[in-house]
Amino acid sequence: MIAKISLGNSFGATVNYVLDKNKSAELIDSEGVRTKDKQAIIDSFLMQQEMKPEIKKPVYHISLGFSAQDSDKLTNEMMSAVAREYIQKMGISNTQYIMVRHYDKEHPHIHLCINRIDNNGKLISNKNDHFRNEPVCKELTKKYGLYFARGKEQVKRYRLRGADKIKYEIYDALTETIPKARNWQELSGLLATQGIRLEFAHKGKTMEIQGVIFSKDDHSFNGSKIDREFSYSKISRQLQANHQSVHIRESPRYSKERTLNEPLGKQREAAIPSFNNIYSEEENTSNNRKRKHRL
Questions:
Q1: Contact yes or no for 261/270 (Cβ under 8 A)
Q2: Residue 113 pairs with which residues in a beta bridge?
Q3: Predicted TM-score of the model (pTM)
Q4: DSSP per residue, 8-77
Q5: Helices 184-192 and 162-177: angle between axes, nearest 10 degrees
Q6: Parallel, antiparallel, or unpaired: how do β-strands 219-222 and 209-216 relate?
Q7: d(C-alpha 197, C-alpha 190), whole Å
Q8: Does the pLDDT value for residue 266 go beyond 50?
């Protein structure tokens, strides 16, 4: 579940939008308004707005979107229950609203038109809405057993152009390749097959790695700007875990002896290569053979 919040200055425009017949709109819940027709709803909002006419944006327009994977369970009753709890947790109460379900998209979604002038003539503040919104959505998604889609899963890739298009191509490539790589060199090779370059950002003029940059065509992005999961430190941890997992599967006896006889720090040191030096295991093995031959 995700929510988008906007403020408006016209109840007429908002009500006409959310109740647009072309969107197969269906009124599923309301509070404090007459619902005979659209004009009755608008007039109800306007009457309450008159208690504080100086407010330039008295309209809350909130859309709640759900995953298509939850379509079967999302009845009107369940969606309105989720929406009521959402606005309560957002600090919106004691006021008028309508909840309208639209059927014009593949994913279930509803629109809320809410009066920011409450029943006592007080303004409902929108302060910190941005910071409260995401945690509330996550909490309700978990509570109601809904599918939790990452934001980027919901983006319509075919609509993207320019830098945004390249950014999401890199995102998709990293999502696919990171689980397959055991070190940075393997990851770099896998990305190169898709035309993506990988380089490290260093701290000042030192060799200390501070971040990772991914480039394709004429566009470059810091890993964390593509997604918070693709920062240098988080990718490093995943590559370490991948390496350790493969090592354990391929050498169970070796892994067992290490576990029994060495401290945890030594186990990790032996199993995980340095990520400042991204030579592959195959190159190291080859170099060892050459040394033995010279001896």
A1: no
A2: 61, 98
A3: 0.55
A4: ES-HHHHHHHHT-GGGT-EEEEEESS--SSHHHHHHHHHHHHTTSTT-S--EEEEEEE--GGGTTT--HH
A5: 130
A6: antiparallel
A7: 10
A8: no
